[in-house]
Amino acid sequence: MPKPGLSRLATSPDSMEASHLVSMSSPLVSPSQSRLKYMSLGVLVLQTTSLVLTMRYSRTLQGEGPRYLASSAVVLAELLKILICLLLIFYDHNFSFLVLNRVLKEEILNKPMETLKLAIPSGIYTLQNNLLYVALSNLDAATYQVTYQLKILTTALFSVSMLGKRLGLYQWLSLLILMTGIALVQWPSESLDGPAPTPLSAGSQLVGVIAVLIACFSSGFAGVYFEKILKGTKQSVWVRNIQLGLFGLVFGLMGVFVYDGERVRESGVFQGYNPLTWTVVALQALGGLVIAAVIKYADNILKGFATSLSIILSTLISYFWLVDFDPTSVFFLGAVLVLAATFLYGYEAEACHQPQQSLDWRPTTSHNRV
């Protein structure tokens, strides 16, 4: 018999995107479930912060030889996620190679149309992952973190328009407060705190901002589109991840050879790789497993709010360690608003609690991204 624990969780195709709640479960949330919800949100904050900071540091670190190719790092992260999901299916079915082979054949090879449905979100996620490397090559970690929180709003709007999700008054208000806080964090420092410091970020800030904005819209659309697909299927979450990963490998390899083909021919795919680069790849690949816990106890918008809390931690480390950001009083005001919005959204969800949806993927064969 398959093990029930792992098959009930979803994982994200990338570290920064997630799948969603699908079937009705228990109408009440126990105290232990509530504790697990906030624990998982806290872990997500730490994972997001560490990924952003290590990725930023790896893209600005001056060293001998060429810098590693972001496109190749995206491909390796997809490959690692596929391997992890294969191991989880193997574990779910008592380490049986025969069952593993049967599951992969029945759920992937024998269901080509179901697999093809994931080509769209997988392509968008691959584009998004590459854009985030572009953004962090041109923006400091704090600015990136703040700007990327716009995905909360895009996810909410796409959820309302595509899924018919209904938000309460306080939830809409919390979204408005959150956006106000983000705007204040990005407020030009010279207007209130004197002349702005000399920018320390390498590259074009405009390129970085545009990359983040495109990533925000793609993240919101792909996440909601993927949720819509999940609500009409009973496939294993791990199978879904493998399907996404396979398309991600194809799109990612296309990106490697189209945009970095010449550099690959000159210095190879693994040029510039070091322990820090492999850490970034591992964090990106394992991010979906962290998101799995969040998705089980919270919706995608609440996950986005939790991620916004990492702005503060990212700013502190960016200021003291990376030394590429100088926070102002306006930033701290914006951070307070972001925190207030987070608690307001949580209060609304608790006050207007409905029977909670949760992933109830059955072993008969069941995913989220990154």
Report on the architecture of this protein.
- This protein has a two-stranded antiparallel ribbon.
- The protein is an all-alpha fold and 370 residues long.
- The protein has helices at 31-60, 70-92, 97-109, 112-116, 119-138, 141-148, 150-163, 169-185, 190-193, 205-230, 237-259, 261-267, 275-297, 300-322, 329-351, and strands at 23-24, 357-358.
- Helix 1 packs antiparallel against helix 13, helix 2 crosses helix 13 and helix 14 runs antiparallel to helix 15.
- The radius of gyration is 20 Å and the shape is globular.
- It is built from 15 helices and two strands.
How many runs of DSSP E, i.e. beta strands? 2
If strands are numbered along the chain, what order do they take across the biggest sheet?
1-2
Major sheet attributes: 2 strands, antiparallel
* Total DSSP helices: 15
Shape: globular
The SSE string, one letter per element, is EHHHHHHHHHHHHHHHE
Low-confidence stretches: 4-27, 191-202, 353-370
Rg, rounded, reads 20 Å
The average pLDDT score comes to 76
Rounded to the nearest angstrom, the distance between the terminal CA atoms is 29 Å
How much of the polypeptide forms β-strand, as a percent range?
A: under 5%
GO cellular component, one term: Golgi membrane
Organism: Oncorhynchus mykiss
GO molecular function: pyrimidine nucleotide-sugar transmembrane transporter activity
Membrane topology: Multi-pass membrane protein
